[in-house]
Amino acid sequence: MHNNKPGEVIPLAEKYIKQEPLNPYGPWYLAIAEYELGNYQDALHWFDKAQELAPTWEDDYIKPYRTVIEKKLSKSTPNREK
Fold first, then answer.
1. In the 3-class helix/strand/coil scheme, how is the chain assigned residue by residue?
2. What is the C-alpha end-to-end distance of the chain, expressed in Å?
3. Which residues have C-beta within 8 Å of that of residue 36, sequence separation ≥ 6?
4. Nearest-angstrom CA–CA distance, 49 and 4
5. Residue 3 — pLDDT band, cuts 50, 70, 90?
6. Are 10 and 33 within 8 A, CB to CB?
7. Which residue of 3, 23, 32, 66 sits 20 to 30 Å from the alpha carbon of 11, by its own alpha carbon?
8. pLDDT tens digit string along 13-71?
């Protein structure tokens, strides 16, 4: 990550996405930055976009993060069944 400052990556990735909308690296780096900041829903959105642009990334690059995010989100959601 950009000198371990994911917040600095976000505007760079957003600019890159505007310049290269079909390149999966913009959404990928934005997803990683959002993940590092704990913005998991935003991270999932950008991982989805990266996967749309690069379907072969799913198993090696997207799925591991998605699995971790889903676990984190399930722990933070209160159990409504009682």
1. CHHHCHHHHHHHHHHHHHHCCCCCHHHHHHHHHHHHCCCHHHHHHHHHHHHHHCHHHHHHHHHHHHHHHHHHHHHHCCCCCC
2. 42
3. 1, 6
4. 23
5. low
6. yes
7. 66
8. 999 999 999 999 999 999 999 999 999 999 999 999 999 999 999 999 999 999 999 99
Provide the pLDDT for residue 82: 43
Structural tokens at position 48: 């989805």
Q: How far apart are CA 75 and CA 60, in angstroms?
A: 24
Measure Cα distances from 13 to 27, 31, 78 in Å.
Answer: 7, 9, 33
Angle (CA) 33-19-48 rounded to 5° is: 45
